[in-house]
From TrEMBL:
InterPro entries per UniProt: Glyco_trans_2-like (IPR001173), Glycosyltransferase_2 (IPR050256), Nucleotide-diphossugar_trans (IPR029044)
Pfam hit, one: Glycos_transf_2
Name of the protein described by the UniProt record: Glycosyltransferase family 2 protein
Top-level lineage group: Bacteria
Domain (Glycosyltransferase 2-like) ranges: 9-170
Record-linked Gene3D superfamilies: Spore Coat Polysaccharide Biosynthesis Protein SpsA, Chain A (3.90.550.10)
Organism classification: Bacteria, Pseudomonadati, Bacteroidota, Flavobacteriia, Flavobacteriales
Length: 246
């Protein structure tokens, strides 16, 4: 805990058997109270590794539902365990668990309600091996979204996020996609509710074990980002209402 606030780390897992242990062992259990792992019907030994590590709260989807659906299960379980602060950490070791202290303290001390680990602040993305086409797409889409929705984030696409219970209870997450665009929808929902988002520089590691979507799915995600941005703009300016932002 920090300031009597219960901290739970959620691990949305899919085929993470090779990196789960390394990720788990770097979680700072001096402040983290519990860990939830949701396995999205992996075909490797993810569940076995989770059990060997002694992760108490392990859920398994009986079919592969998608990255967004995995997060929905993660947050629902964390809130049922009375989490005050929820850390969403990928178990593929792309993001450093050592940043949990810094990110969680910003929320526990009531400075922000949401904190994102940004790969773009500094040179973490390029030095960590992010493919050039993804870096360029990230910068373009971020600039586009900042203009359309009137914000100023360094990136909208990081999967390393920490939330207060208040935010998770406020957002209509069940309306969001079960696919990768879930992350972007969630950020737009957060801004629509009037919350600010803090960013902290995050070193990143890209390797063959790190989860990553291919070029075709990256294109689908990019068009999804553009769609969500325009939906936010139309809703915020009272031109058209969308269930996503209710």
């Amino acid at each position: 805990m920090i300031n009597s606030k219960r901290i739970i780390v959620v691990l949305p897992a899919y085929n993470a058997s090779k990196t789960l242990k390394k990720t788990y062992l770097e979680i700072p259990f001096d402040i983290v109270d519990d860990v939830v792992l949701v396995d999205d019907n992996s075909v490797d030994e993810t569940l076995q590794v989770a059990k060997e590590l002694g992760i108490k709260h392990v859920l398994k989807h009986q079919k592969n539902k998608g990255y967004g659906a995995n997060q929905k299960s993660c947050y629902k379980k964390a809130l049922s365990l009375d989490a005050d602060i929820v850390v969403m950490l990928h178990p593929d070791y792309q993001y450093s668990p050592k940043l949990i202290h810094s990110m969680a303290y910003l929320i526990a001390n009531d400075v922000y309600k949401v904190v994102i680990g940004s790969r773009i602040l500094g040179k973490g993305a390029i030095s960590g091996g992010m493919p050039i086409y993804k870096y360029v797409a990230n910068r373009f889409l971020t600039l586009f979204q900042n203009i359309v929705i009137g914000q100023k984030l360094s990136e909208y696409h990081s999967g390393y996020r920490v939330f207060s219970k208040e935010v998770l209870n406020t957002l209509y997450l069940e309306c969001n996609s079960d696919d990768f665009i879930f992350d972007n929808q969630m950020i737009c929902q957060i801004f629509n509710k009037g919350y600010e988002i803090a960013e902290i520089t995050c070193p990143t590691k890209y390797n063959k074990e790190s989860s990553s979507i291919n070029f075709r799915r990256s294109l689908i995600y990019g068009f999804g980002v553009i769609k969500v941005s325009f939906q936010y703009f139309l809703h915020k300016n009272k031109i058209k209402n969308f269930e996503l932002f209710k």
